[in-house]
Amino acid sequence: MIRKDGFAHLAVAGLVAAGVLLTAAGAGSQTKPGHKFYFADKAPVVTDDSEVTTRIIVGDDESEGRYTIISDLWKPGFTVSTHYHARHFETFYLVTGAAEWTIDGETHALKPGDAVYIPANAPHSARTLGDKPAHFVLIYSAGDYEAHLKRELKYGEEGMKDPKVREMLRELNDFHPVKK
User: How far is residue 76's CA from residue 66's CA, in Å, rounded to a whole number?
Assistant: First the structure.
């Protein structure tokens, strides 16, 4: 479908082509190698803190490390500081809520149905808008996002306070803060 402003819903078409919507329609029960159904009401929560709730839709194992597909619920007031990824690209599709993204200095507000693609090495930041959570489906490629979460959980809340641990994990997780 093309809106009056001429923007084709390429993000949705891309998700369909990638099989994301089929995967998301239906967690976590692997019925045979090569496919997986995802049921939102049964998906285990990988992270649930005061700001973000993350569920893995397609993990590193299912995609053979090619990509990770995540359901992310960002609470109101959540912000992601400016950073870049040297080895990864990200695509965020906004399901509900509102958010503002800045990529390479260009800022846009997103509403449900909008998406943003962020190539490797592009400085970017984001924040929720309004008083409702923002629910995203995130495609992270090449995979490893699930391993990134496991590495952080291994150190716990206290360990994450250590600047040396945070720096090591940033490097391992391909998260490079941009200093202002």
Answer: 31
- Averaged over successive runs of 10 residues, the pLDDT of the chain (180 residues) comes to 38 42 43 73 79 89 88 96 95 98 97 98 98 96 80 82 89 87
In a domain, 118, yes or no: yes
Cβ atoms of 120 and 86 within 8 Å: the answer is yes
168: domain CATH number?
2.60.120.10
DSSP, res 103: E
pTM: 0.76
Asked, for residue 26, whether it belongs to a domain, the answer is no
Determine, yes or no, domain membership for 100: yes
How many structural domains comprise the chain?
Answer: 1
Residues 117 and 138: their CA atoms lie apart, in Å, by 10
Return d(Cα 122, Cα 114) in angstroms, integer.
19
Domain span holding position 138: 45-177
Enumerate the β-bridge partners of residue 90.
118, 140
């990988």: which residue's tokens? 46
Place of tokens 């993204």: 101
For position 15, what pLDDT does the model report? 46
Cβ atoms 110, 74 nearer than 8 A: no
| Residue 31 domain-assigned (yes or no) | no
